[in-house]
Amino acid sequence: MKESEKVVIKKPYVLLSAAMSIDGKIASRAGDPELSDEQDWKEVHKIRSKMDAILVGKETILKDNPKLHIKFHEHKGYYRIVVDSKLTIPLDSNVISFQSEIYPTIICTTERVPIKKIRQFEASNVKIIQSGAGRRVNLVKLMPLLYRLGIHSILLEGGGTLNWSFIKNDLIDEIRLTIAPWIIGGKDAVSLVEGEGFEKMIQAPRFRLLNINDRDNYVVLNYKRSDK
Ligand SMILES: NC(=O)c1ccc[n+]([C@@H]2O[C@H](COP(=O)([O-])OP(=O)(O)OC[C@H]3O[C@@H](n4cnc5c(N)ncnc54)[C@H](OP(=O)(O)O)[C@@H]3O)[C@@H](O)[C@H]2O)c1
Question: Taking the model in full, what pTM does it have?
């Protein structure tokens, strides 16, 4: 196939956002994720206000029960997206029950989920997207499905397991990382990126440093995916 004949598959622009400790943890071993200060939250909420969707993994919903809303700025609303292969998050999770008219919720599952379960969630105004028949949601197939829904920008807000799947599939375009002034430790505390990791540096996607800001002992780093 000639270069000009290649089919371009459109995917949303993905910005990974996280706050981590100096030693790379995004929560304590007991699951305490309170690393950001108010200034950092304001900045993250500003970014949320410009995105078409916020995407998180199932464990973040189960552990933190976030609303994924905006407190500090004017906005037009956006989708909240959860990847949950077997559709197991509770129906009374904040991400489903809180202000769904402003922030509609999409849950992405695999094709293995029974239709009866899907109907239950649809009855609570949740849109279900099935992507792949494997053990976990197929993110590569999912991206163009979301794009076709009009979701052209996604703020990926973790956790570490989902971040790894995005990194492994080279789906991240930009990173905004807050380094908070603590060392938390603990081999069971979730890191920015979990998963099995790459064996060799050459396999890992490389990022270009765009910006560094520091204030009150916090450092905010911005990276962009280097040209492939
Ligand atoms: N500091 C921060 O900025 C920040 C931000 C977000 C989260 N967190 C913290 O991160 C922790 C949660 O992270 P986590 O690593 O335990 O879980 P996670 O990344 O939130 O969720 C992972 C789960 O998502 C589901 N999933 C579905 N498809 C997937 C795919 N293709 N790849 C990966 N996962 C997929 C899997 O469950 P199924 O197989 O059942 O579908 C998987 O176990 C919490 O403690 C939270 O507080 C911190």
Answer: 0.96
